[in-house]
Write a sequence for this structure.
DNA sequence: TATGAATGAGCCTTCATTCAT
DNA sequence: CATGAATGAAGGCTCATTCAT
């Protein structure tokens, strides 16, 4: 792998409804397996088996393992995007009350809770992105969009008086997204020693207008 | 790999001075290669080749690739530990003036700058730790020590009046270390869109007693 | 195959006596299999099996199927060279009586008779040489040497008064070697319709000084 | 391939005009690809692609790759036959002046020059014929016809007094056709070291009545 | 202590072929 | 007639590991 000898000749295959379904099945299978075994332990045979198709079918749809991996990024983007949708700038147009930063952190947390694989897969892909240009390109979009979303939240919070007015929205967003990613990493290493709720509460307090009392948690 | 067919029978070999040197050479070679190719692309043959020994020699010293990987964690711990030493709790006993949080962030940053491989290797191992118990166990120590170090810093900063007094030191430390790890990840994906200095400055401002004006940076 | 992704990293492996033997075994196995199944049907697994070693051993010694194929050319060169040795320019230095052209043709014929695979393998490689530069380079040497040998024969024959004096030795040699190769091809297609003895006798007669009577053969 | 699991059930399909055209397109595509990539590199998908049809269509018309290959022989026979037509026995009935042997060689040469693929394909099929009975059977006809044609030429030349009277027409024809085939092989290996014109001139001289002076060519 | 040689298990990919539409 | 989708059976190659020396 790694050095794609032949640019994926396939990928075009998804004309029919059924073809699209097969593609989704394969991507979903790959997604789950990445979470379970890591990219290091990902085998095309296993993907095909879990999707209930022959391994040749996988190549028929994606051509190459590398190509499938790139497609996975988009797949995850969709998954992840849907989770964060309510916070997206687009949703802000409605009369819906702006979501607080705290709520965003909570929802991000819940999202990872509900989709236990998401965090792992995201990290795996992040790492791969550092070495593989194709993955990187595809992955940047996710990050940009995510950062922009949080930036928007911060701006709203500040305007609404919920957050300190001296915040640099862009930098704050970068800090927050970084924190979330790092938190996932630490949780993976030592779930018992890291209380997401508690820590995210602390962060919220840093940014809040009225500095409430520090929460007394059992661990942090 | 993964399922070690035969528990590492070796590992005992490091009695002599020369043996210890060979071990170090191999570990250093592995360390560099992990940074360059990732765990996914790590090959025992390459490690041996870079260390200038036969591949059998590698197995003589480490028995198994898995065993070598565990040893790598300790190796990295040492490396990383030395970098952070001045900030370590142990160093606090001296009369040395307490380091500011800002300084810590800056130094962490510089440390990654000086050792460009460190961040990558740390991430790779973090990810592996999530799946491999042996790695996890070995890796937890690093994180715990690191978190404790930062916690100590926060406590000092608060006591010295440089940081807000209402901080939860433990949670703050967890947040900060998480941020640093996440920042490394984001930097790997899109170095151009992430200004570590600027963002860490923002964080520093959140925790500082006197909320200075937000820095006007080009990007964040 | 075809486009060697990685230039054969191996090939160096033949230091010891035993290693050289393994190499020879593998080449001999490949040689036989090419004759039996053709290059089209040549499988590395079969080669290894016939040589009585694991397929990995084959790659240990040759690195690539392509590399092995190039090595085969040299192997065949040796085989073929030994057969033609008496006619070689080098052998002419001795007091040995010069070999007649007829004798050369006869011996070439007997050589192919004794080594039934030789002709087939030679043809397969000739064909491959037209497309693969590596094979071509290695194969040109054989042809050049062969042509030179026959040219020498013609010159000697003319000088000795056995062959017509107006021959262009170089052109005659080219014609003769071409004839032999083409004859092998025709024999492969329709052995019953091609009597090598008879035809080569005819050619000999064309070049001879005293035009003897045409041989009355059963078929030609 | 090789061992056809299911005897070609198709092949019957060519009733309509359009069907015949499709067949021709596919054969022509296969013919070109054999010349370009060799039988070893011939892929049914490539053939279909070059013919502008789906790969299933190929199987609809020929059933099997093997069957298509047999059909190719006939296709080539036609092609080759048309080129040699003026020299064919059939054409001899007319009052057309008999073609000289030299002219035949020249024309054969020009034919290969004009149809650069022909020689290659012929050789590929010759080789295949040695192993595959079906191909062999189909291919023998071509050779027989060709040999008979040349034999006819020789006979005419002798009768007309242009060629030596002591020739064995059958053997001479076999020698000449063998030479041509071998020459094609050598040309493929080392075009720079083989001057067809010069060499065929030499042969012509051997057979001619009046032994002219050997041509002084640059190379042979 | 160190290594050259050898291997078993497995990986990604290819390709001729089939079948429902 | 023609095709898109799917597959079984390899095929070349890799890699961690072993073992005699």
């Amino acid at each position: 792998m790694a050095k794609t000898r032949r640019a994926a000749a396939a990928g075009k295959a998804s004309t029919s409804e059924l073809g699209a379904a097969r593609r989704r099945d394969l991507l979903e299978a790959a997604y789950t397996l990445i979470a379970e075994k890591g990219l290091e332990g990902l085998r095309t045979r296993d993907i095909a088996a879990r999707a209930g198709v022959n391994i040749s079918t996988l190549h028929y749809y994606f051509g190459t393992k590398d190509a499938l991996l790139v497609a996975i990024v988009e797949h995850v983007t969709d998954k992840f995007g849907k989770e964060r949708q309510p916070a997206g700038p687009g949703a802000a147009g409605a009369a819906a009350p702006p979501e607080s930063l705290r709520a965003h952190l909570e929802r991000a947390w819940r999202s990872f809770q509900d989709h236990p694989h998401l965090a792992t897969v995201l990290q795996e892909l992040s790492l791969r992105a550092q070495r593989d240009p194709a993955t990187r390109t595809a992955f940047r979009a996710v990050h940009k969009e995510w950062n922009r979303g949080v930036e928007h939240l911060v701006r709203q919070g500040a305007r609404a008086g919920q957050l300190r007015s001296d915040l640099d929205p862009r930098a704050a967003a970068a800090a927050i997204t970084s924190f979330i990613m790092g938190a996932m990493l630490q949780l993976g290493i030592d779930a018992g020693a890291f209380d997401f709720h508690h820590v995210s509460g602390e962060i919220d307090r840093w940014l809040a207008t009225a500095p409430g009392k520090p929460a007394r948690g059992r661990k942090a």
